[in-house]
Specification:
The chain is an alpha/beta fold and 338 residues long. It has 14 helices and ten strands.
Length: 338
């Protein structure tokens, strides 16, 4: 019996050794795959953030197109901004943005849904929040999405639809997740109305496994945030090397399937205790102490080593605000990417 126990322990030890060596060899093989040299960069633009900074939102958008020469833009269509009154739609600004993008040959991702980029993450109209009825909210959201997709499905500047933003990540205010079954209804609605354009589903790069998002997507989008702020931890830098994303992507492709992938949000502005446009509380000097031109360059180089080849940078409104306030360094550095 004692010999048998020793045999089992020895066998288990050999198994663990083989497992560790195997994982090391697999990781080494994955990491040795050369990174593509050709990369494309775009931005996410949110016009109401320009408003928060006190800037002319159209001036900022034209500068993105004409000065930065950006050709890839992600534009969220916020439910609370577009249908502030039930069944009354205001598409004036998005119409103008798409028209200007088309003039310059830029491609646009239109993000739709209830959970979209920027705090508070979920952007329901007040008349939805007042109702406090999830069934009613879902019905109205599908109706809103139908109106939007039918309006823009044939627009020449449209490249893809993004349905919801990080729909499996519990984060935000008034932002209880609606679940995968309802997300499938949203995706089916978009595909039925517009079978020509691909659908992007996004997920957190650091906090999610990607599986549920990748399965549903035509194109998968991940976020990459290097340094964030939390009220319990303060500033926190994720201790993840770029290879983390290469291994994660390779494993997803092996177990789930090979899908086109991009970085839907690459951090290119500070994440602090206040919004950056609250500059009376979070001064330019404080912001630049946490994110400056060197940080910008580091994040770009980090991103290039992750194995992705298409990146949408996050923070273009902040760059322009810095530029008109005597700090054009990041704006000018960004020009080199586009």
């Amino acid at each position: 019996m004692l010999k048998f126990k020793k045999f089992l322990l020895a066998s288990f030890g050999i198994f663990l050794l083989i497992l560790v060596v195997g994982l090391f060899v697999i990781s080494w093989a994955l990491l040795s795959i050369p990174v593509k040299e050709t990369r494309a960069f775009g931005v996410t633009y949110i016009d109401w953030i320009s408003d928060k900074y006190g800037m002319d939102k159209r001036e900022v958008f034209l500068a993105i197109l004409d000065d930065l020469k950006v050709k890839r833009i992600r534009l969220p269509i916020y439910w609370n901004k577009t249908e502030a009154i039930d069944d009354s739609y205001d598409f004036k600004e998005i119409d103008w943005q798409l028209e200007e993008a088309e003039k310059r040959g830029a491609e646009v991702i239109l993000a739709i849904g209830r959970k979209l980029p920027r705090w508070p993450e979920c952007h329901q109209p007040g008349w939805i929040l007042d109702k406090k009825d999830e069934g009613y909210e879902k019905k109205e959201l599908l109706e809103f999405s139908e109106v939007v997709v039918k309006k823009y499905r044939e627009h020449p500047a449209l490249y893809a639809w993004q349905v919801e933003n990080e729909p499996f990540l519990p984060f935000g205010e008034n932002c209880q997740l609606l679940g995968g079954e309802f997300l499938d209804k949203e995706i089916s609605l978009v595909r039925k109305i517009d079978p020509e354009h691909p659908i992007i589903i996004t997920d957190s790069g650091e906090l999610s496994f990607w599986v549920k998002a990748v399965k549903r997507a035509d194109i998968f989008g991940t976020t990459i945030y290097r340094t964030v702020w939390n009220e319990n931890l303060g500033y926190f830098t994720y201790p993840l090397p770029p290879a983390f994303f290469r291994v994660k992507r390779a494993l997803i492709e092996f177990f789930v399937g090979n899908k086109p992938m991009l970085v839907s949000e690459l951090q290119a502005e500070p994440w602090g205790p206040y919004e950056n446009y609250e500059y009376e509380l979070f001064t330019i000097e404080e912001q630049l102490s946490h994110f400056n031109i060197e940080t910008f360059r580091e994040h770009i180089e980090y991103a290039k080593r992750t194995g992705f080849d298409e990146f949408y940078l996050w923070g273009v409104e902040w760059w322009y605000w810095l530029k008109i306030n005597g700090h054009p360094e990041i704006w000018n550095e960004a020009k080199k990417l586009f």
